[in-house]
Every structure is written in structure tokens, then in C-alpha cells.
Protein: Large-conductance mechanosensitive channel
Amino acid sequence: MSLIKEFREFAMRGNVIDLAVGVIIGAAFGKIVSSFVGDIVMPPLGVLVGGVNFSDLAVTLKAAEGDAPAVLLAYGKFIQSIFDFVIIAFAVMMGVKAVNSLKRAPEPEAPAAPPAPSAEETLLAEIRDLLKQQKA
Structure:
């Protein structure tokens, strides 16, 4: 079996198509989340924390020489990325929590009490109890 034929069979499986659709929708949803966080969540949060931005924090490993730029260890960008991730994760968690609360199934009703025994069952139970008393 040729390599091209194998690849075609692999690519045409339903799971691969589903995965491709999921990746495309995920990328589009990523843009929505980025916009939500960057345009709606971050501005008021930036006002609350006083515009904290760690991106400029760095250690110079080698100074700039001539046309060569300085070599920096930009740890501030890493700290800012972690800070942004925590904010994004919290915002997404709150959104998912809101959606889940909207689609929760109503509380199941309490199970109904078992039906009372019929007259025949009650009579048979009384006979059984009388027979037990006679044997004792």
C-alpha cells in the first residue's frame, strides 16, 4: 500500500475531520476569549491594580555593542504572561460556571413513597404472622 494511499485513508477518517473542525473552532474561540480578556476584563482590572506591568523587567546579560542589540533575560515578560494567564483562566472559569448554571438539570423530584400493600398482601402477612406465633 503506498504512503499516499495510507495518508488519504487516515485523513478521511471521521476522527481526523472532527479534530480539524475542533481546531478551527478552537482558534476562533481563542480570538473571542482574547478580546474578552483584553478589551473587557483587563481595562477595569488595570485601573484597580494601578496599571502594573512587569514586561519591562529584565537583566542585561551583554550590553549592546555597535549594531548588535543587548542580550536580555526578560523575566518580566514571563511574569506578565503568568499574570495574564491567571486572569484569563479565572475569567474563562467564571464564564463556564455561568453557562453550566444555566444548563443544569432541575433537581430530581423526591422518589414517590412505595404504594401501600394491597388487601391480599396485608391478609397474607397477617396469616404469616399468626403462623409464626403458633409455632413459637
Q: What stands out?
A: The chain has a mean pLDDT of 83. The chain has four helices and two strands.
